[in-house]
Specification:
By secondary structure, the protein is α+β, with helices and mostly antiparallel strands. It contains ten helices and four strands, in the order H-H-H-H-H-H-H-H-E-H-E-E-E-H. The chain has a four-stranded mixed β-sheet. The longest helix has 20 residues. The protein is globular. The N terminus is likely disordered.
């Protein structure tokens, strides 16, 4: 996994330092929700542009934020119903089946970090395993890591991890992905939840993050969980 992390970090390292110099853009959930209700097609178009193989360089960071966080109102986390199957298939070595499930998740939500990371990881494993004769190369994995990079960079724009400026997420799993693959943080001592944040007491620092704690704003996570329990 650490070897794979290095492969992924090749994409992430160049943007992380730049993100620290940008003006923070905390997410206005009410504004995002209203925009999805009033202009759903615009949000869908932004999602497709952000998730395209080749990045649309005309996208502003406001566009990226609206696309990523607005997508959570379009899909309402429906794609995560396939997550357990995807993980089981991966653990059991059913790589082709795992890829198919991840693709189904991306068909519902093209910006799902779990699915993007899994697609990239499985293709990476298949490319490195010469016994499979799969015809997969490392180039096949790169587009998924690049797409994930755009999302990590978008999350990085929303805060700095402090209590006053937490990073905004829509899934708890995005917190772990962001720490692992963007900040290269793999250990933490404890995780606690407040009324609006997940707080990690870190067991290590990295060249990308050196604070003792990292905060994630989880307003949308709570909303989606309530919706799930009401079904």
């Amino acid at each position: 996994m650490r070897q794979l992390c290095f492969f992924v970090m090749v994409f992430f390292m160049s943007v992380n330092a730049v993100a620290q110099e940008r003006k923070l853009m905390p997410v206005d959930w009410k504004k995002i929700s209203n925009e999805v209700k009033d202009n759903p097609q615009r949000v869908k178009d932004l999602v497709m542009r952000l998730s395209a193989t080749n990045l649309d360089t005309t996208l502003t960071y406001q566009d990226r934020i609206l696309a990523f966080y607005g997508q959570s109102f379009l899909s309402n986390d429906e794609e995560d119903g396939l997550k357990t199957d995807m993980y089981k298939q991966k653990e059991q070595g059913l790589l082709k089946e795992c890829l198919a499930t991840a693709k189904k998740m991306l068909d519902i939500n093209p910006l799902n970090l779990n699915a993007l990371n899994t697609m990239g990881h499985v293709l990476y494993v298949m490319a490195k395993d010469s016994t499979q004769n799969s015809g997969v190369t490392l180039e096949d994995a790169k587009p998924y890591f690049k797409r994930a990079m755009r999302i990590y960079n978008t999350i990085a724009m929303t805060g700095d991890g402090s209590e006053d400026h937490p990073f905004y997420v829509t899934k708890v799993s995005d917190e772990y992905c962001f720490m692992h693959y963007y900040l290269n943080l793999w250990k933490f001592n404890s995780q606690t939840a407040t009324s609006c944040c997940d707080v990690f007491d870190l067991g290590e620092s990295s060249e990308y993050y050196d604070r003792p704690k990292i905060h994630f704003e989880i307003t949308r996570v709570y909303e989606l969980e309530r919706m799930m329990f009401q079904k």
